[in-house]
Specification:
With 83 residues, the chain is mainly alpha-helical. It has helices spanning 5-8, 11-28, 41-58, 70-73, 77-80.
Length: 83
């Protein structure tokens, strides 16, 4: 039997490292950084933990995701994305 995607990504630690890097890079991006402007470090940490929980759950790890589902999260996207 093949290893789960969760295992191949390095388990919780590998996914946490990836998510931390992703949020950090997105916060420095000239287009995406506006989503993290004027946010507290506590708020950013919570968002990062929700991302970790989501990725762990979706890749086969034992984690319960408590954030909003994608449909609810994307309700306002057309009004905030400019092309």
């Amino acid at each position: 039997m093949a290893d789960s995607l969760y295992s191949r990504l390095g388990g919780y630690d590998g996914i946490a490292m990836f998510a931390t890097s992703l949020v950090g890079q997105a916060g420095k991006d000239e287009v995406l950084s506006r989503f993290w402007t004027d946010r507290s470090e506590d708020s950013i940490s919570r968002e990062r933990q929700l991302l970790i929980n989501y990725l762990v759950k979706e890749t086969g790890g034992q984690m319960y995701y408590t954030g909003r589902d994608m449909a609810l999260s994307q309700v306002r996207i057309p009004s905030i994305v400019s092309y």
